[in-house]
Amino acid sequence: MITFDDVTVTYGDFTALPQLDLTIDEGEFFTLLGPSGCGKSTALRTLAGFVTPSRGRIIVAGRDVTRATPDKRGVGMVFQNYALFPSMNVRDNIAFGLATRRTAAAELRRRVDEIAEQVNLSPEQLDKNISELSGGQQQRVAIARALILKPSILLLDEPLSNLDAKLRQQLRVQLKDLQSQFGITTVYVTHDQDEALSMSDRIAVMNQGRIEQFGAPAELYDAS
Ligand code: ADP
Ligand code: ADP
């Protein structure tokens, strides 16, 4: 489904990813795990099309997307800080991705209602301002905004790190349920080992831009 083929990413003189090779299967929950600064976000942003590799190829569903713009890759991304628009209400935030594609108003309304229900946002919440929502609710808005474009791949960059411990536990389960409900190929970034082990089908453990360990949680657990 997704292949990083010999992908190198540099920031000026600094090589954040040296020759990354990685294959992610269709429908799996795949996690990039590692300490801050190891290159997880860089790998995710390269897949999303916000960073261009200096070498190598990104293949998605058999198509070379290395030079494709983010909107042409069939990926939806949820950022660590959610990157929602504070001056817009929930409905308009969710609709944003579609509204720019000149979708008719009635269709837009229907799609927002549908996706909101799927991520468990109530109709009343749709009229609220972003600042009136809890962190967990804001996260659902960010996920809805990513899913409304019906991407084949969902990218999640540390989506739980801004939440308190109790909520993190609940949302782990909810995120996982959502992923299996949609059957959507998911690439998840975290520095939290428990999170990775409890949620993932497979994990790549990264260090300094390289993959140090790779496998299903049980395999990694046995090896450590
Ligand atoms: P992680 O997501 O694992 O925390 P990042 O991919 O954000 O790691 O960063 C990997 C390395 O690249 C870090 O050393 C970071 O400082 C550096 N880096 C990330 N983005 C930039 C940038 N835009 N310019 C320069 N260096 C960057
Ligand atoms: P994350 O928490 O996702 O790893 P960071 O907080 O490290 O992200 O970085 C936030 C933003 O700052 C990113 O857009 C990243 O590209 C940029 N950045 C990170 N490290 C550096 C750096 N050393 N120099 C310049 N920009 C950086």
UniProtKB/TrEMBL annotation:
Q: Which residues form the signal peptide?
A: none
The protein's superkingdom reads: Bacteria
- Keyword annotations for this protein? ATP-binding, Nucleotide-binding, Transport
Show where the ABC transporter domain sits.
2-224
Q: Name one GO molecular function term.
A: ATP binding
Transmembrane segments annotated in the record for this chain: none
DNA-binding among keywords: no
Q: Does the keyword Ribosomal protein apply?
A: no
Give the protein's recorded name.
ABC transporter ATP-binding protein
Q: What is the source species?
A: Brachybacterium epidermidis
Q: Upper taxonomic classification of the species?
A: Bacteria, Bacillati, Actinomycetota, Actinomycetes, Micrococcales
